[in-house]
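Thread: "does anyone have the structure for this chain?"

Original post by V.I.:
We have the sequence but no experimental structure in hand. Need at least a predicted one for the grant figures.
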Amino acid sequence: MAHVLIGFAEALPAPEVVFSLIAAGHRVSAFGRSDALPLKALPLTALHVIPAPETDTKAACAALNGLMTGDDAPDLILPLDDTGLWLANAALGETPRSAGATGQPADVALDKEAQVAAALRAGLPVPQTIVVKAPADLDQPLPFPSIAKPALAIRADGAGLGKGETTYLPDRTAAEALRDRLGPGMEPLLVQPLVHGVGEGVFGYAHQGVVHGWSGHRRVRMMNPHGSGSSACAAAPPSQDLQTQITAFLADIGWQGPFMVELLRDADGTPWFMELNGRMWGSLALARRQGLEYPAWAVAARLEDGWQPPVVPDRPAPRIQRNLGREILHLLFVIRGPKSAFHRETWPKLMTSLGGVLRPAPLRNFYNYDPAHRTFFLREAAHTVWRAVRR
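Reply from O.Q.:
Generated one for you, tokens below.
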């Protein structure tokens, strides 16, 4: 068994990853920006605080290199979020000690423009996408209402890392206001039409050109109805057509290991490609309740020559899997109300949301619940709400 370093410890899937790796017999350490995290209540070998790469990438890289050096260093590193993926690749390069994406696949995992191009080549439905690399690009005809989002999930910004803002463009006036705020050194943006629909995710493990352990989810509630990760989701196995297209997409970018492809299914049933999450994802609990231990598989693939993903017997998933902290935040967002006419059309009814959030459910139907740590999910939920309200 191995000693695995995961990070960032603040990442949404961190607790489920810890549970998965410990259940497989591994020792787990984590790195984060602070040690004031619920994760330290779990049986970690260590929780290391490193400089935040958002303010000092050189110091963060040096710290991570230090953690991975020496006789007692972890055997492997497993990035859990975009920042962790960027940092692991910047600090360690294409190392065989990474259980996550490295090299070109890692670059694609952080580049939505490259993802859109690969999705189109694979035949996946992609919303009309306009790449904006200069302010004047916004003068061309745009689909309204639309959304302008950063093409890069994360990027170097001076001495640190930055993440651009997403901007809603209801009309030409908003597009002109955005153009006036952009400068010559702007980061690339993707402009796409806003689409009413239900978020879905398709998960699996790509290994030697074959995808194993297909699974998926459909969002029941979003934490923020304006657009965010789910606070409640249900199992939604992908169709054969989607499996074929996503397999082609992954082969095109040379992907190996766990993946999550995010989709938005509209009223006509079209599953529009949104993005690839090339690291662990928030609703990992839903897959794990079905016996799909993607984090443990990623580590096993690095440790064992000739490893093959196990055949997992069909196991019914909980009908709805819920994140308690995000469910509470969902209610707060619903009470605050929509920011635009577009969102007002489908804004959740408060009583409907209350009924869903307050409906009793078995403990195993909640993210971050583990029988060996029965109260941890409550601790994590309180931290999630506190952190959001503090912002």
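V.I.: this helps a lot. The two ends are 40 Å apart (CA to CA).
O.Q.: and Residues 181 and 222 are 30 Å apart (CA to CA).
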